[in-house]
Design a protein that fits this description.
mainly beta, 14-stranded parallel β-sheet
């Protein structure tokens, strides 16, 4: 009897605990009402109302351990405000808070504008009364679901300054002046677009400069018709990367530049003008302007360090979030590092985004920023981005090492088409962060680097350790508008970091620095192996300076200018280069100071399709070997299966055995899963053709 009593008591308590832990659902639907209770029969209308409903229920029953689920019925939702989550909204590891959308769930951070009216077949207009009533401004526009261009000149390509002069107002103590005015003389074609502007239209004009790895974005403050110069002001130019006559620029938000299909301009009085693209009709056209700049913010307690934990978003699309330039403009910053994301987290643990979409942003996509850990972005589609797709960690070093973001996993995602507002943004970036993983991602169609890891220049201590960049497909980057970029770019001491099994190709810069693998200032302790790198502009691998990096068992094919590059000569060993295959049909084998840098290089295979007489700098292979370099390397054709069709499986088994090269299956790089997901990752053939044409034009000009 006693045993039966205790068994019965155990079953009663187990039932009670099970009841408390069972999932509780709150419902949202397109036709919902935020005054309703959030049941399946009476759903809510907004994410914020669902959050508030759960807060209330938790207060009413604080001891219950429910796994709360917010079930979102399929359909379109206009977000009236950013969803803001704090410590009180988190769950626990066994009972997380889940936002789960049915297939076809879309949240918009903007709203639909009034229907267009026809002025002519090539020019439409729409009234936006909020502009004149509330002085509302927006800088991005989406027509029929795709981004369109704010009227700019030139329509294709760029201008370059005729001359650049800077007047320093306040020097300050830094390397760059605190305040200065730049006088930019512009070519006649650009001047013709702005010389007749009204004063208010001139003040609204924005000029964006592309200089090496940076962008400077400023309002035009004054135009001098006498010498066709404009004035901009703000911080002084950075002496290491100023605007010069070799820089590029475009001017936007100019009514006289509204002359091409897909361009728009809005007057301060609220009339929006749009030039329709081929095939668009007024009856079938909708336009949406962003109101929110963020879809979601998740913030723990900065003072106590308490984190928001265990929140998951599933099967939700977030589209259209804007960016508005400050009145003073935007100063240059590498990788567009300060630019906010549409989803941001600080002091957050175990936050996940699974099978979600983020698109149509003015800034970046998702940012695990300060003191975040064990986050996950999986099977998400991040595209049409104003800046980059994913950011991890902060750009500033905190005094408390516990605030370094770590163990963020970004796996099996598509990150495509970024840098529309900030071209210098990177596809995926790890700033100060450790033990993070970027795995099996498709990263393409950005104007700058694909992946950036580390945020310390030189040999000062860095918290960025043991990060993994593996099995990613990284390609079609640069587009000939910026310089000094890499498919994978690293900075600072990064012991334990691996860059492996990636496929990297079609990297093309404006000037110098279209590299596949790029270990920049102070990169240290990094292993790069089993990567396939081909069709880069400057070289497949470049080390600016660093120490004790290992570049091994990679395949480098057909870079245009050179195949391998190293720049700074230092006393310590900079890197080892072993068991690699280097195959090329243009340019030189080595560039810069590779012949004199302190490196270990051996058991490599080199092959020039134009002949076997390969020069190592200015030395023959025999002379090179006499210096103790590449003693066991060979000059031989590795026998790739079909180079023309990018099939780099090695046929010459004897050669790879001799150099101890271990074949790797590079087809595993990129996304995996369903046939539909893999097809979505396929790069658009028209974009690939446009890239090839761009390269051909640039190379033809360089050959003149």
């Amino acid at each position: 009897m006693k045993r039966n009593f205790w068994l019965a008591l155990f079953l009663v308590f187990s039932f009670i605990l099970f009841q408390d832990a069972v999932a509780q659902n709150i419902y949202i639907a397109p036709g919902g009402n935020d005054n309703d209770p959030g049941t399946a029969e009476q759903p809510l209308a907004t994410l914020t109302a669902a959050r508030d409903r759960i807060r209330l229920l938790r207060k009413q029953n604080p001891d219950a351990q429910h796994a709360w689920q917010i079930i979102i019925r399929k359909g379109e939702y206009i977000m009236p405000e950013t969803l803001m989550l704090s410590v009180e909204d988190g769950g626990m590891e066994a009972t997380p808070l889940i936002f789960k959308g049915e297939e076809g769930t879309v949240f918009y951070g903007g709203f639909y504008l009034n229907k267009f009216e026809k002025i002519s077949d090539s020019l439409w207009k729409a009234d936006v009364p909020e502009v004149r009533r509330y002085d509302w401004r927006f800088e991005q526009l989406f027509v029929n679901g795709s981004r369109v261009t704010r009227a700019q000149t030139p329509n294709k390509g760029f201008y370059s300054p005729v001359s650049v002069k800077e007047t320093v107002i306040v020097k300050g103590d830094g390397r760059a002046p605190e305040l200065a005015v730049q006088q930019i003389k512009i070519p006649a074609e650009a001047a013709n677009r702005i010389k007749h502007l009204k004063e208010e239209d001139l003040k609204d004009a924005v000029i964006t400069f592309y200089h090496h790895w940076d962008n400077t974005k400023k309002p035009v403050q004054f135009y001098n018709a006498t010498d066709t110069s404009i004035l901009i002001s703000g911080e002084g130019m950075k002496p290491w990367n100023p605007i010069t006559t070799r820089s590029l620029f475009a001017i936007e938000n100019v009514p006289s530049a509204l002359d091409a299909p897909g361009e728009w301009f809005i007057e301060r009085a609220g009339t929006l003008y749009y030039r329709p693209r081929p095939g668009e009709t007024i009856e079938g056209t909708t336009a949406m302007a962003p109101v929110l700049d963020k879809f979601i913010t998740i913030s723990g307690n900065e003072k106590t360090g308490e984190k928001v934990s265990d929140i998951r978003f599933e099967n939700i699309a977030f589209r259209v979030a804007g960016y508005r330039m400050p009145a003073s403009g935007v100063e240059p910053a590498q990788a567009a590092a300060p630019i906010a994301a549409s989803i941001e987290m600080d002091f957050a643990s175990r936050v996940s985004f699974i099978n979600c979409e983020v698109s149509g942003t003015g800034g970046s996509g998702i940012w695990f920023r300060r003191a975040c850990d064990n986050g996950l972005i999986e099977h998400c589609y991040l595209h049409d981005l104003g800046a980059g797709a994913v950011k991890i960690g902060e750009t500033m070093l905190r005094a408390d090492p516990k605030e370094v973001t770590h163990h963020i996993k970004v796996v099996n995602n598509i990150a495509r088409s970024g840098g529309h507002v900030f071209p210098c943004a990177v596809g995926m970036t790890i700033f100060h962060g450790s033990d993070n993983e970027l795995l099996h991602n498709e990263i393409s169609d950005f104007k700058y680097s694909g992946v950036s890891v580390g945020w310390v220049w030189g040999y000062t201590p860095s918290p960025s350790k043991r990060n993994r960049v593996e099995y990613n497909h990284i390609h079609h980057l640069g587009w000939g508008v910026l310089s000094d970029m890499g498919g994978v770019y690293t900075l600072g001491a990064s012991e334990g970091t691996t860059v492996s099994n990636n496929v990297i190709h079609h990297i093309y810069s404006l000037d110098y620095g279209g590299w596949g693998l790029y270990t920049d200032e102070g990169s240290e302790g990094i292993v790069m192996e089993n990567n396939l790198v081909y069709n880069c502009k400057s070289s497949g691998f470049h080390q600016h300076y660093g120490k004790e990096n290992s570049i091994r068992n990679n395949i480098f094919v057909n870079s245009i200018k050179a195949q391998l590059q190293a720049t700074r000569v230092e006393k310590h060993r900079s890197f080892s280069f072993t068991n690699n295959i280097v195959y090329f049909n243009s340019g030189t084998l080595l560039s810069s100071n590779w012949p004199t840098v302190n490196i270990t290089t051996d058991e490599n295979c080199y092959w020039n399709t134009r002949g076997s007489n390969i020069l190592f700098g200015k030395k023959t292979f025999a002379a090179w070997q006499q210096e103790g370099k590449d003693k066991h390397s060979v000059i031989a054709d590795p026998g790739f299966k079909d180079v023309k069709n990018f099939d780099f499986r090695v046929v010459n088994k004897r050669i790879i055995s001799k150099i101890k090269f271990k074949p790797f299956d590079y087809s595993k790089a990129g996304v995996y899963g369903t046939k539909e997901w893999i097809q979505k990752a396929n790069f658009d053939a028209a974009r690939a053709e446009a890239f090839d044409q761009m390269v051909a034009v640039h190379e033809a000009k360089a050959a003149e």
